[in-house]
């Protein structure tokens, strides 16, 4: 499988923290682990001194719709080491300004094109995403990014194919991309990628091995 061209360095083990209910991150992670957060998922970390190594923001995260405002509210004052934005680089000044207004800080920011994202999804699953029904969520896409870098153990936490809502609020909003997540994970697991979860319910519904 072709390696992603993004200038990223993962450790051999990675926790991918989704925004769904039931996430669990160990209080202490040693240097062999990286932490990847998705959109506003880092808000569930009780210890605000824990800084994700990587954070992925979808194209809509910084917009001003109700669901996006809820995410931004819990991100105020937070930070990450490397911020990956699913957006076009020509919007860099606008996005930097929004992040400044939000008080969200980062050591560096990387813009990711749609073509790059689709390439690593296809590399991990064999699926050529053609429409939104096949499109996996940002969290599952992040898992496949780790796959493309040869990470030896990828542990998913804060994911669900059946439960609505987000762990950082009680709005119980519908979770999108369930169909795409299910199909993509099934294909990735059939290819033998080292993807695991520490959630028993998610393991049962998705087929992702429980660790």
TrEMBL record:
Protein name as it appears in the record: Membrane-anchored protein
Organism, scientific name: Aliirhizobium cellulosilyticum
The root-end lineage is: Bacteria, Pseudomonadati, Pseudomonadota, Alphaproteobacteria, Hyphomicrobiales
């Amino acid at each position: 499988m072709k390696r992603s061209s993004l200038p990223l360095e993962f450790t051999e083990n990675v926790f991918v923290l989704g925004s769904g209910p039931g996430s669990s991150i160990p209080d202490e992670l040693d240097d062999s682990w990286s932490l990847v957060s998705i959109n506003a998922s880092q808000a569930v970390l009780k210890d605000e001194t824990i800084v994700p190594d990587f954070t992925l923001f979808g194209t809509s995260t910084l917009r001003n719709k109700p669901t996006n405002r809820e995410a931004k509210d819990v991100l105020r004052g937070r930070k990450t080491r490397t911020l990956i934005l699913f957006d076009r680089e020509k919007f860099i000044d606008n996005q930097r300004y929004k992040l400044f207004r939000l008080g969200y800080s980062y050591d560096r920011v990387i813009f990711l094109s749609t073509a790059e994202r689709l390439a690593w999804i296809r590399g991990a699953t064999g699926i050529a995403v053609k429409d939104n029904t096949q499109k996996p969520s940002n969290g599952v896409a992040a898992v496949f990014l780790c796959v493309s870098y040869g990470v030896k153990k990828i542990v998913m936490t804060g994911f669900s194919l059946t439960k609505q809502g987000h762990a950082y609020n009680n709005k119980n909003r519908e979770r999108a991309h369930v169909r795409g997540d299910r199909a993509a994970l099934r294909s990735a697991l059939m290819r033998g990628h080292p993807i695991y979860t520490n959630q028993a319910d998610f393991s049962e519904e998705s087929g992702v091995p429980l660790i």
